[in-house]
Write a structure and sequence with these properties.
single chain; mainly alpha; 7 helices
C-alpha cells in the first residue's frame, strides 16, 4: 500500500472540504459582485418565476420558513430590489413584486451554483442519482446535519435560530 495516497476516510473529508469551499467561493463572488447572498438571489429568481407571489407561497417554493423569507425580503426591500404591495383582490394579502432595479440585477446576475449542479446531475443515470442522494443523506446524518431546516440553496451564511429543527 502506498502511504502517499490518502486513506479512504481522508478522501471523503477532502471531498467534503472541496464542496464547502466551492459553495463558499461562489457565495463570496455573488456577494462581492452583486451585494447579494445566495438565498437573496434565489428569492429574487423565485419572485420572477412565480410572478408576484405572497410570502407564504415564496416560503413554500424556497423550502424555507416564512420568518426566514421575511428576513430576506426585508434586506431586498432595503436594497430597492423588491416591493411589497397589497393585493387588489384580497386586501389581507401582501404580494412581492420586483422593482426595475431588481429585474436589472437578475439580468446581470450569474447562474446559481445549484443550477449548474442540477444541469450536470440531471444527465446522470437514475441509479447514479439515487446513489448520490442516498450517500449524501447518510453523510448529513453522520454529521448530525439533519437537525437543520435546509432548502435547496447552495450558499453560505448565518443560520437563523428559527430554522433549526427542534431536537427530538
Amino acid at each position: 500500500m502506498n502511504s502517499a495516497l490518502p486513506e479512504i476516510h481522508e478522501e471523503v473529508l477532502i471531498s467534503l472540504r472541496q464542496i464547502m469551499q466551492a459553495i463558499d467561493l461562489h457565495s463570496k463572488k455573488i456577494s462581492k459582485q452583486y451585494g447579494l447572498t445566495a438565498p437573496q438571489l434565489v428569492v429574487l429568481n423565485l419572485i420572477r418565476k412565480l410572478q408576484s407571489p405572497s410570502v407564504k407561497k415564496l416560503a413554500d417554493w424556497a423550502n424555507l420558513s416564512s420568518a426566514t423569507v421575511s428576513d430576506v425580503l426585508d434586506r431586498l426591500t432595503q436594497k430597492g430590489l423588491i416591493q411589497r404591495v397589497r393585493s387588489e383582490k384580497d386586501k389581507r394579502l401582501i404580494l412581492i413584486h420586483l422593482t426595475e432595479k431588481g429585474i436589472e440585477t437578475l439580468h446581470k446576475s450569474p447562474p446559481l451554483l445549484q443550477d449548474q449542479f442540477l444541469e450536470k446531475f440531471s444527465k446522470l443515470e437514475k441509479w447514479e442519482q439515487t446513489l448520490i442522494v442516498s450517500s449524501l443523506q447518510r453523510v448529513a446524518d453522520m454529521m448530525k446535519a439533519t437537525k437543520f431546516d435546509a432548502s435547496p440553496i447552495l450558499g453560505v451564511g448565518a443560520i437563523a435560530p428559527e430554522t433549526l429543527k427542534k431536537d427530538s
